[in-house]
Amino acid sequence: MEPELITGFLEYLTFQKKYSGHTATSYENDLNQFSSYVQQQYQIDSIHQVNHSVIRSWMVELLNTGNDPRSVNRKLSALKTFYKYLLKEGIIQKNPLLKVQAPKTSKKLPAFVEEKGMEILLEQELFTNDFAGVRNKLIIELLYCTGIRLSELLGLLESDLDFSRKTLKVLGKRNKERIIPMVKELEKSINNYLGLKNQCGFSNPELLCSDKGVKLYPKFAYLVVNRFLSMVTTIDKKSPHVLRHTFATHLLNKGADLNAIKELLGHANLSATQVYTHNSIERLKNVHKQAHPKS
Length: 295
Known about the structure:
This protein is mainly alpha-helical. The chain is built from 13 helices and three strands, in the order αααααααβββαααααα. It has a three-stranded antiparallel beta sheet with strand order 1-2-3. Helix 6 (131-146) crosses helix 10. The model has no long low-confidence stretch (mean pLDDT 93).
């Protein structure tokens, strides 16, 4: 396929749709993979030669080479967004994806850490009292107490904190801002961390920084979360996003309104938030099974 079309599409995502760099890179990889496939298998070098049969064969090839259906659906989603862009620009007149059915996937409940595990993690002496230990604990607390994404965590600036209103400002997807309450314990931890950060002479505008005073990178935060969650849970995934799931699930279990959780998470649609109700239902089933005399 024409490389300039992919380049134009990526510029459109970045500058007009305000997609994150991570998402744009993911789309670029998927489109380049598709482009290589159609060139090698069908000697196609123009988008106008691609039809639904070609796209279906790519999908089958992905599944046959061990790709998970969820992964294939994500790649198809990138292709769908690309074709919508081509239609919008008048580059093509028909969308071949309309005849392509995505592979079925089993619904997976979001993994989360039980409340007891989070209590152990945050209340027992698992973190050191030096700068690194206080920062690592704050990474966990920010993710769990606010439900923010990893990219939002790393993008937090000191200027985003409002101690008078006890809130923090988060820049989410599509550069959409939202305000999240700062609970008392989190406020205390942030003040403790900022004091140590100042003592170390670190003056970068980002809230979180490395032991050398530079902005944290995603892998570092991931490893911190993985390391400490491994101490309190046996769930397979121990990533920053699991703490986002944990935040939402614990709020729902305590009776929080679903629309309020949606706003706190920064979801565009309520359907994205409703997935957490399944965890709540499973919890009720377990309570019923253990407590009801006829269970």
